[in-house]
Fold this sequence. Notes:
Blueprint: E1 8-19, H1 27-35, E2 41-45, E3 50-57, E4 60-66, E5 70-76, H2 91-106, E6 112-125, H3 128-139, E7 153-156, E8 159-160, E9 168-176, E10 179-184, E11 190-205, H4 215-235
Antiparallel strand pairs: 1-5, 1-6, 2-3, 3-4, 4-5, 6-11, 7-9, 8-9, 9-11, 10-11
Helix pairs in contact: 1-2, 2-4
Amino acid sequence: MTNTTKNWKADHLRVSIFSTRIIQESVESIYETVTGVLPADINQKPATGESIATGIFDELRFEVRRSFNRVDFIIQPIPLPTLQVSLISDLESCIKKLKQTTYKYIGNKDDLIRIAFGGNHLYEVENPVEAYKKLSSLTGQNFIFGKHKDVIFQINIPSKSTAKPGLSINRLTNWVSPTITINQISESTASKTHFFCGCVADFNTDAENKSTFEPKYLEPIIEELALEMLTFVQSGVSL
Length: 239
C-alpha cells in the first residue's frame, strides 16, 4: 500500500451506536452528557422519529442524532469565511476527541448490538488530472482523467475483529474525485475551485451479529474501527 498520510482532511467524522432497545434519553440529555453543556439548537423530525441537537464544542460543530434505537455523534469544522474549503485538518486528534466523547455515552451499556465509525475524507490536489492519479494509486486501478468520467470505486473488504473473538467487521470505502467551488460574495465576487481525491469510509460491525456486546468490548471495538478506517484512508486498499 502507498503511504499518503500527508494532507488528508475530512468534512465530517461520525460514530453510530445501535441498541436492541428503544432509546429513552432525550437528545438534549445525550448532548449534555457527552459535552457538559446544553446544545444551541434542537430539531425534531416526527416523521422519522429523529431528534437532532447541535452546538459548538471544543472549536468544532458537534451534532447528536437520536432515533428509535440509534445514536450518531458527528463532528464537523466550523465554516470558514474564505475561499478555502472548511475541513477538519488534524484527523488523528479529532478522531481521538470523537472516541472520547462516545465513551462518555456508552459507559457500561449492555444493550448495544452494532457500532460504526465513518467519515468523508478529502486529499486536495492541484487539478483533476492529479486527482485521478491519486485515486489510481490508492485503489490499484488505472483511472485517467479525460478518458474516464464520474468514477466511483466502492469496495468492502471484511475481516475478523481483533478486539472481540468471533466478530466480523465491514471495511467499506467509496473512492471518488470530487470538485468543490467556493463563492465569496463581497464588494467584488470571487470564487475558487478545489480538486480532491475523496474517500467516504464506513467501518462497522457486521449487521448479522445478533448478540449484544459485553461492556468490556465496547471501547476496544471502537478503537479498532477508528484505527482501521484511518489506515485504509491513508494507505489505500490492497486488492
